[in-house]
Design brief:
17 helices; disordered N terminus; mainly alpha; 453 residues; Na+/H+ antiporter like fold; two-stranded parallel sheet
Length: 453
């Protein structure tokens, strides 16, 4: 997911928004394709939820969402909506942990010079929206708790927007957006762990360390314990992961945090019989790559759409209800944070880093393109809905108004980004024509040949 920023063509200045290495290009292209499909499912699920919640059958929607089941002594008697946010989203954050670890261990982000721009942009894209929301709600202590709602970027939703507008956005910009969104998710889960955990029970957290530690130990030593078996890791590691999640949930820390921790425990490098671990390659994947391949369809095709279905449904109350929500500082803060704060934070941070390092853009790209990507990053849907539910209880007036704000801001950000990116689409087509030439038919675009590791 990295953006190369090493000197090119004999130049003396680092370059940002550069094409990735061939292995990264192929891997990220596959990830983006799957996330685009998941984003379309996400849009469909959200639309169905909103229509159902505002139809004559509205009571049935909320009745289904609020049905409870589970084992009470283990603190697992939850509503359907809670199972979706606490359980299914743990799969989503498990993949986030896997992706980040893979990038920092064997991907293009393993070098600080390459990671600094997208990582800094992600932090700027979190900090500025939070400050915007805080400024709007500074005199309203009861709404200030929602400061983290506008800090998220929904990569699946954003990629679905690109698919809908038929954008030929260059791979370097798509990878920058994906990197930013994944780092953004890690920041979000850290915020959730430290600022949105209530009634924390240290005892459960200590017990949680036992299955988590055993999970990490067995995952790292899998070749010795599991041999060549393909099913043994699942039989042993999956139950340990579920126990870790359950104890994290019982501790009062949001259970999705367990997903990221488990993802970090999976080894990226593939073991060798006698030598040091090696980077994964086609036909010889590491365990992280195997798990990512198995869990991504579950995340993009089931977990995120189902969560969106049970979280996006909000009773708007027609035009009158929407107008009444406009006076809520929560709505104002969320909309301004996502639509304005996101692109400003991303652009400002990138500007400061590039000026400090005297970096330049890759030929063919400019600040105009980064503006479009920054606007698209304002599509903060899935994680924003999760943080909203943690900030304001279900059924609370501010909760409903924040959902309206998230929907409004995400659609507005998508529309503005679409306008900017479509104006550059002819230019992007020319870049795409260059990037897809493979004269030697070796499966690697010719423009990436000089970037082979």
């Amino acid at each position: 997911m990295a953006q190369g920023d090493t000197p090119q063509g004999g130049g003396s200045h680092p370059v940002i928004l550069q094409r990735s290495s061939p292995p990264e290009h192929l891997r990220i292209t596959e990830i983006l394709r799957k996330e685009t499909v998941g984003g379309i499912l996400l849009l469909i699920a959200s639309a169905v939820a909103i229509i159902w919640a505002n139809s004559p059958l509205t009571d049935s929607y909320f009745a289904v969402r609020d049905v409870e089941f589970g084992y009470e002594p283990w603190h697992l008697r939850l509503s359907v909506g809670q199972w979706a946010s606490d359980g299914l989203l743990a799969v989503f954050f498990f993949l986030t942990g896997l992706e980040l670890k893979r990038e920092f261990v064997s991907g293009d982000l393993r070098r600080i010079s390459r990671a600094i721009v997208p990582v800094a942009a992600a932090f700027g894209g979190v900090l500025v929206p939070a400050l915007v929301y805080t400024a709007v709600n500074l005199t309203s202590p009861d709404t200030l708790r929602g400061w983290a709602i506008p800090t998220a970027t929904d990569i699946a939703f954003a990629l679905a927007v690109l698919a809908v507008i038929s954008s030929h956005l260059p791979g370097a910009l798509r990878i920058f957006l994906l990197t930013l969104a994944v780092v953004d998710d890690l920041i979000a889960i850290t915020i959730i762990a430290f600022f949105y955990s209530t009634d924390v029970h240290p005892g459960y957290l200590l017990w949680m360390l036992l299955p988590l530690g055993l999970f990490a130990f067995l995952a790292q030593r899998r070749s010795g314990f599991f041999g060549a078996s393909t099913w043994a890791p699942w039989v042993i590691l999956l139950p340990l992961g579920i126990v870790t999640w359950a104890l994290m949930h019982a501790s009062g820390v949001h259970a999705t945090v367990a997903g990221v921790l488990l993802g970090f425990c999976i080894p990226v490098l593939r073991p060798t019989p006698d030598g040091p671990p090696l980077a994964p390659r086609p036909g010889h994947p590491g365990l992280a790559e195997v798990f990512e391949h198995r869990f991504r369809p579950l995340s993009t095709g089931v977990a995120v759409p189902v969560f969106a279905f049970f979280s996006a449904g909000v009773l708007i109350g027609g035009v009158e209800g929407f107008v009444s929500a406009l006076g809520d500082p929560v709505l104002i803060g969320v909309v301004l944070g996502l639509v304005l704060g996101k692109p400003v934070g991303i652009l400002l941070t990138t500007f400061l880093v590039t000026r400090a390092r005297k970096a330049t853009f890759d030929p063919g790209l400019s600040w105009w393109d980064l503006l479009g990507v920054g606007m698209l990053a304002g599509v903060g849907f899935t994680v924003s809905l999760l943080v909203n539910d943690l900030s304001f209880g279900a059924g609370h007036e501010h909760n409903d108004h924040a959902k309206v704000a998230i929907l409004t801001a995400s659609l507005t950000a998508a529309l503005l980004a679409s306008i900017v990116l479509r104006l550059r689409n002819k230019h992007y087509r020319r870049i795409e024509e260059i990037d897809t030439v493979d004269a030697d038919a070796d499966g690697v675009p010719d423009v990436l040949e000089d970037r082979r590791p």
